[in-house]
Amino acid sequence: MTNQFPSHPPRGPEVQRAGAPAFLWILVGIMAAIEVALSLSEAGYLGSFNLRWPAFAVGAFWQPIFAGAMTPIFPGQRLIMLVTYAFLHGGILHLAINSVILLSLGKLATSRIGAARTLLLLFLSAVGGGLAYGLLSQSAGPMIGASGAVFGLIGLWQGWDYRMRKNAGLPLRPLITAILGLAAANLVLFVIFSGGLAWEAHLGGWLVGWVMALFLAVRKVHI
Prior knowledge:
mainly alpha, Rhomboid-like fold, 8 helices, two-stranded antiparallel ribbon
């Protein structure tokens, strides 16, 4: 079957479908199961051993490992952590925020490009977020969260908006304002969390989404 990315964001009945696709709920379910287990362990309900930091040690993204300054715990960790970090979170609130955005924007993306390409977008955005963090950050601590993939969905949506406005001859100012607002929100949160926000991963994921919106929208994809 041959499909093509649209040149504009979805409108009308296509965005009125009830409920997010099953594969998105599965992803959220996996992340939730991991976070619940880690939270229960941290609270002492699963024995005396706290599993959170061991889980972070093997699954989080570590910039020193990426840069070669620290020895990986297991073979292939330098590559595997580009994806596994997205399934780990720092608490229920962190998980909830990413899950809500993932389900809502993921539902809209799936209605336009299908489940397979939405899943590919999430994968590539997570990897892009990890690569950007590895290249731009100097932090020695673990980087976790699905926000790189979430920002891939945001980048995809804004890339579609750009194409639609450009093709229709509409002003780009609303889009530019939205992008600047997104950057400002990241800056504010970076200050609030005393530098604990992985803006580099957000940027990497967003760029992947934007490129996919622009590039794949004009090329046919065979599935």
